[in-house]
Amino acid sequence: MADLTHTPGSIDLHTHSTASDGRLSPTALVDRAADGGVRLLALTDHDTLAGLDEASHQARIRGIELIKGVEISVTWEKRTLHIVGLGVATSERTLASGLAGLQALRDQRARAMGKQLEAEGLAGASERARELAGGGQITRAHYARLLVDDGLCDKPQQAFKRYLKPGRPGYVNVTWAGLEEAIGWIHAAGGQAVLAHPMAYGMTGAWRRRMLTAFCDAGGDAMEVCCGNHNPSDNHVCARDARHYGLKGSVGSDYHGPHQRWLALGRPLPLPADIEPVWVHLSF
Are 142 and 106 in contact (CB under 8 A)? Predict the structure, then answer.
């Protein structure tokens, strides 16, 4: 294993490609990471492993280490959480079967969302979203782009707020994997289960602590301490939580593409020295 002491910009363990809702192909994502000085990269598309072979091939060409990963959608206490699996074996049947079920749910949701958005004036929503996805899965982000393209919203953030969040006309509720179930899939595939962006769920401190307790009780291994959209206060809170719950730490930008002008691959700050890095437990 190469020396992977975490310096700013060198490690990013949460990214997305066109296999889910990212804007760059797996090859282009790896190229951008390598050009930016990232030495250890994880591709963690939503509920799919589809981009990993391509990313692995390009990582070998560019001379960087690639961690095979996935971001699994979970329903907990009627809330949606995201659990990142790092270092997973892509041929493991338990994980593959679980993700296939989630992909079927995603397809059903995409069709229902398309019909609802067409009723709201987004012409040809389903067909256009499928074309925009280019063979990858259709996500809310694709519909947000169409809402902006058609002038129904000014920005993707506005599209989510007006149409795609719970209670809005384009939202379709789905019950995803259970928390213990998803962590079990990751462990069956030899991976580490990481709670993604803990500050992004809009929870009070009490609810966040309840979530972390449930995550630990279900066998979770680590949490993202430094995230791309965190401010210093968020990093401090997450570092404190990692210490309190005895969780390893991860760093990830949650990068989706160049349209995020405020965010770069490898942007998260280094972990505090007293938090054990999750990547020392990964094989690559």
Answer: no
Total domains in the chain come to 2
Pairing mode, strands 65-76 and 11-12: unpaired
Q: How confident is the model at residue 8 (pLDDT cuts 50, 70, 90)?
A: low
pLDDT at 2: 45
Predicted local distance difference test score (pLDDT) of residue 283: 77
CA angle at 245 for the pair 88 and 184, rounded to the nearest 5°: 30
H helix runs in the chain, sequence order:
26-35, 52-62, 93-119, 125-133, 140-149, 156-159, 179-188, 205-217, 232-245
Local structure of residue 271 (DSSP, 8 states): P
CATH number at residue 219: 3.20.20.140
Q: Are residues 193 and 253 in the same domain?
A: yes
Amino acid residing at 256: H
**Gap between the Cα atoms of 219 and 50, Å rounded:** 26
Closest CA to 181 of 238, 108, 102, 241: 102
Residue 174 lies in a domain: no
Structure tokens at 29: 């994502």
Burial 95-113 (b: 16+ CB within 10 A, else e): beebbeebeeebeebbbbb
pTM metric for this prediction: 0.94
Residue type, 136: G
Residues 108 and 85 grouped into a single domain? no
Cβ(234)–Cβ(199) below 8 Å: yes
Report the alpha-carbon distance of residue 47 to residue 139 in Å, rounded.
Answer: 11
Same domain, 85 and 187: yes
Structure tokens at 14: 């949460």
Cβ atoms of 118 and 133 closer than 8 Å: no
Closest CA to 284 of 58, 66, 31: 66
